[in-house]
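Hey, quick one: can you model this chain's 3D structure?
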Amino acid sequence: MQSDIYPSIREFIEDLDQNELVDLRREMLQPVIDYGISKLREGRPMNLNYICTHNSRRSQFTQIWAACISSYYGLTGVNCYSGGTEATALYGMVSEVLKQCGFRLNQMGAGNNPIYFVKFSHTRPPSVVFSKEHGNFYNPESGFAAVMVCSDADTNCPNAPGADRRFYLPYKDPGDYDTTEIQAEKYRECSQIIATEMKYLFSSIKNAY
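Sure thing. Here's the predicted structure for all 209 residues.
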C-alpha cells in the first residue's frame, strides 16, 4: 500500500473491516467495480461523480474517501468528483470528522460556500471540495459514472447528462441527526460506512490486476 498516505489515515483504512458489508451492499457495489475494472484495463480513466441532493454531506464523504482509498491502493487513472441537485456548502460536521481521521483541510476564501483543499498524502494533489450542482464546470462533461448516494438524488436526478453509466448507492443521511446529542456519532458512523465500502470497491479493482 502507498506509504505517502498520512499515517493516521493509513491506520484508519487498515482497521476498516470489509467483512462487515452485507451481501446487498456488495451486490450494489459490484457494478461500480466492474465499471472501474473495464475502464482501467482499457487504459481509460475511471471518472466517478458522486451525487446527492445538497452536495454537503454524503457525496462529499464519498468523493474524499474514494480519492484517498484509490490512492492508498496505488490505482492511477481514478478521478473523483461530487455534485448535487442544488449547491449549498460543505457541512461543518463533515469537515470535523475528516480532520479527526487525519485529513488536512485548507479553506480558500470566505463566503457561504468556500472551497477546501483536502489533503491525505504527502505527495498527491488534494481533493478540491465545495458544494456545486452535478453539472458544474469543475466536473467532467462526459465519460463519467454518476453514483447516486441518496434516494432524493436518485428520484430528482433521473438523468445525469454526459454520464456513460449511472449507479445507485444510497447512504443514510447523517443530517437527520443535526442538533441532536448523537450528531457527531452519526457523522462518524456515516464516514466509516462510506470508507469501508470504498475500501471494498477499490481493493476489489486492485485485486483484479
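One thing worth noting: The radius of gyration is 16 Å.
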